[in-house]
Amino acid sequence: MDDVVLRIRDLVGWDGPEAAPDWPAHIEATGIRFPADFRRLAETFPPGEFQGFFKILHPDMYEDAAEYRAAFRGHAGLLRCRAYPKPGGVIPWGTVQFDYLLCWIPEGDDPDRWPVAVFRPHGHEPEARYEMTAAELVHALLIVPCPIERLAYVAEAEQPPDFGVFEDDEHDEDDGDDEDDGRPAPSPGFWMHPALLGALPEPVDAAAELRPYLTVSPGTADRSADALPLPGDYRRLVAEVGTVTAGPATLLAPPRLAAETERLRARIAGEREAGTGPLGPIFPEENGLILWGVLEGGGYLFWMPYGPDPDEWRVVALDRTLRFSAHYRMSATRFLLALSREPGSVVLPPV
Question: Does pTM top 0.85 for this prediction?
């Protein structure tokens, strides 16, 4: 095993099972000649996250090679430079939430010598380029002092650094009830990493500034929201005007919100039954994200219910597959305002 992968394993104290991706199938489907260190990294660690918010695009996160190819295309679609699958285009291989995309620059015939680069989503040029491999960059982002200054917060979030798998694949002993066999067990704390938290920027209630940008659904104002234990900016807005749309996002007022929540609950229950489903919990699961809106193209908008005060809840967006997420240190109305005023500044999960 490559020394750098061993060092990563020792840093995070990982002694769990290894993975066995079907590399020939993934290489054929994606057309990517995966560097040896990345393959070893994906074999040593199953799908999961370092520090709770930094991950590689692991092939075993996806149902099959076609879905893995789609994941590369989706992440590459967040870039505004020449990117995969265009010949010679940069190839994303990891993410730091949706703050940064970690990419290969496929220069030369030897993938093991490809440099790596850090891009902002929607970036035309890399924020930085490093003459190192993917595994070397992962290692650099886990040590203190961190040699990658702009991403030092990754290492500083937790020391010693942490690695956690996305799902609990260990099942209870057979008790004669097959109903729960094979279901993922999402961690109640999956969304709640402290490195992503902090006070929301003011004003938390941005409804007044948001109003000129809204398309209102007539007759949907609903004062029953006043009695719900939800953020105040949401309650006030739906009480005054109801369901509203701002760009690609729609904030749902009751009862449409209740209906959409029930549809999503039934969908996730079916996916859990089949042994799939989102990697983190969704309401009514423990500490689950709470739905408040939908995105054009089938995505979802949630609150992350961290703490007892709903006015401190921030926004999480999931794509229509419920596999790709983006976190925003904003309230719902502040998020819609940013999406309306400066749509390029708000990076949504790939459609």
Answer: no
